[in-house]
Amino acid sequence: MKGINQPVEPLNGYSRCFFGLWLLATMLSVGWRNADEPSYKAQIEEWHQSRVNALKSETGWLNLAGLFWLTGGKNSVGRGPDFDVAFPIANALTDLGSFQLEKGEVRFSPNAKETVSADGKPLTESLVIFAPDKKPTILAHGSLRWFVIKRGDKYGVRLRDVDSPSLKEFHGIERYPVDETWRVKAHLETPTTPKTIPIVDVLGLTSQQNLAGTLVFERLGKTYHLDAVGEGAKLFILFGDQTNTHGTYGAGRFLYADKAGPDGTTVLDFNQSINPPCAFTTFATCPLPPKQNKLVLAVTAGEKRYGDH
What we know:
Helices cover 11% and strands 36% of the residues. The chain has 309 residues and is mainly beta.
């Protein structure tokens, strides 16, 4: 899980984008406060506003407008139904050019009659826009933005529309009332030897993720365990709980926490539990909680279900 400015879902192939994205959504970790600091609730509200701003930003999840899987060789692209990669049509059918997928690289060749820019500069000739260990290039035409993502052995074009109706329809995320009792201390049990755990995504693809450790915490006298993977200075937790059947997103939620201190402890603030990108769009490829992270506990804190995804 690495962060860059254009978000993709967490975890290796996923997260180069997603953590950049959710770094904005989770960058504020609420700490114990001094007498002159804002109240705990005020700090959570400030954190939540930062998350909302990130969702609504140009690199947020609300403006996704498509996800198109490429086939090997040439793939035509344009606005309208007559292309291999068929972007939404605007005023007229528009031929934007073509993608060429070969040996793990994707090259884009623009149609000279149309204006396509690459990272903000007009594109006049073919350009490799995706290659291993290279930051994907962002292409643009009008309100559309697109770049290439890789999931397993699949290569896809992720499309954004900065004028997406979803931005206008977004009126916030319903949440449980802020409850400081859901801010709990946890002890991180680290593996004695490096270990990975399998994480499955909504496409059915499985990736092995490095286990940072198992977080052990108590709630109302009972002990619970959550496996965490690493994300820079943060731990990343995919978890499910008993509210997923009615009040929260059915496939579980995400939570970030600071890495454990010298004494092996950190804090899990479930008031910062967030919906995965798939709760906001059908064009995300989110990872799912592993079975050991499905709590026999109703976590009545954090974000509730959003929309119908």
